[in-house]
Amino acid sequence: MKVVCVGGGPAGLYLAILLKRQDPSHDVTVHERRPEGSTYGWGVTYWRGLLDQLGAHDLESARAVEEHSVRWSDGVAHVRGLATRHHGDQGFGIGRHRLLEILAARARTLGVRLEFESAIGTAPPEADLVVAADGVHSALRARHADHFGTESRAGRNHYIWLGTSRVFDAFTFAFVETGHGWIWCYGYGYSGERSTCVVECAPETFTGLGLDRLPEADGLALLETLFAQVLDGHRLIGRAVGDGGAQWLNFRTLTNRTWSRGNLVLLGDAAHTTHYSVGAGTTLALEDAMGLAAALRAHDTLPRALDAYERQRKADLLAVQSAARYSAQWYENLPRYIRLPPHRMFALLGQRHSPLLPYVPPQLYYGIDKAADRLEALRRLKRWLGPRAAKALYARSSDGRQ
Predict the structure, then answer these.
(1) DSSP letter (8 states) at residue 83
(2) Rounded to an integer, what distance in angstroms lies between the CA atom of residue 264 and that of residue 52?
(3) d(Cα 289, Cα 270) in Å, to the nearest integer?
(4) Residue 327's beta-bridge partner residues?
(5) 40-63: pLDDT as tens digits
(6) How far is it, in rounded angstroms, from Cα 247 to Cα 357?
(7) What is the mean pLDDT of residues 71-99?
(8) What pLDDT does residue 160 have?
(9) CB of 61 within 8 A of CB of 17?
(10) What 3-state class would DSSP assign to 213?
(11) DSSP strand pairing (27-32 vs 2-6)
């Protein structure tokens, strides 16, 4: 099979790896519009479950990813000069640049052709399969937006994706009150020298602080002052000037009614996005690649394979997309929780994926949650009720698009 993959991010590269491992006779080419090594972004997060999946599909790349990752198991929240620490599941961080280096090297070893500075705006007619892995602004998808049923919904809050030379030893949250409302950041290490630092605030805080008008350098200086406690004298780093600089954005949740058109199929962010606060974007992109490769192996015709891939991945995404919606809403409604004692606020921060939390007074939810931890019957009720409430609320608020 001749496969053309448009987009050299994690999803496109990993799909190329899996297809060549399944059948070395596949002719697989990955086209990336940017120069090699010029990727945007800082670090990405993932959890042990992804490493287990990577190991089951391609042990060599999985070992390289783990070797170049940093780990943490604690979460720390700073609010009103106080800090609270919580021990949780082990998380991992890896630089996006390093992850792409690993996947590109592995793809080349297997015989995949990588074409950088190669923009593809239309599906090549000679390909048996064309994979649109070119991100949220996919040019291939945009040409047929009506067919795919693409919708993009902007979130309320503003955010900016930055780096810092402060290496956090835990997943770190910091909430700072200003004269214009609250502003907060989440930071996590991804190497021995750098961390990612995402800053977020409500629209009124964004404009009140002048972040909509300040030049990038002045905006970074202001943020360094606001988050001086957690940065501990370290600087915030924006993107290179030639790369467009660091930009404030509103997160856009993208969905598509269908994921394929003939021999063209959507993968990763071209198909769906989930709010960054759940840290699942890279994991879902790689899982899409696993799902598509498995469907192509299991079915004897391309239409059946693409249909099976879409159905399975949409089903798999339901839980994480629900969690992402409620996570984004938690931050959009921060004043509801921020006045709680820090340890209680942090506990509900960890529960922000719950479909019940927005409908229960925070102090009452905290008490019920603590009681559920002590009583097995309540734990069972919580596990039973949560998914059913999420499903019912999801059906009321959307038409099931993904």
Answers:
(1) E
(2) 29
(3) 12
(4) none
(5) 779 999 999 999 999 999 999 999
(6) 32
(7) 91
(8) 97
(9) yes
(10) coil
(11) parallel
Tokens at 5, concatenated: 């993959």
Which residue is it, tokens 């099976």?
308
Strands laid side by side in the 43-47 sheet: 43-47, 82-95, 70-79, 171-178, 181-189, 195-201, 158-164, 236-237
- Write down the number of H helices and E strands in the chain: 14, 16
* pLDDT tens string 19-39: 999 999 999 999 999 999 887
Query: Which residue shows structure tokens 């015989």?
Result: 111
**Tokens read off for 68:** 């170049």
pLDDT digits (tens, 9 = 90+) for 205-257: 999 999 999 999 999 999 999 999 999 999 999 975 445 568 999 999 999 99
Question: Residue 221 and residue 372: Cα distance in Å, rounded?
Answer: 44
Q: Is 30 helix (H, G, I), strand (E, B) or coil?
A: strand
> Which tokens in the block code for residue 304?
């059946």
Q: What residue has token string 């606001």? A: 226
Amino acid at 1: M
| DSSP for residue 209 | T
Angle at CA 50, nearest 5°, toward 391 and 393?
10
pTM, 2 dp: 0.90
Q: What is the DSSP string of 120-189?
A: --S--TT-SEEEE-S-TT-HHHHTTHHHHT-EEEE-SSEEEEEEES---SSEEEEEEEEBTEEEEEEEEE
CB-based contact 271:151 (threshold 8 Å): no
The strand pair at 252-255 and 151-154 is best described as antiparallel
Rounded Cα gap, residues 310 and 290, in angstroms = 12
* Residues 94, 97: Cα–Cα separation, whole Å: 8
- pLDDT of residue 192 exceeding 60, the answer is yes
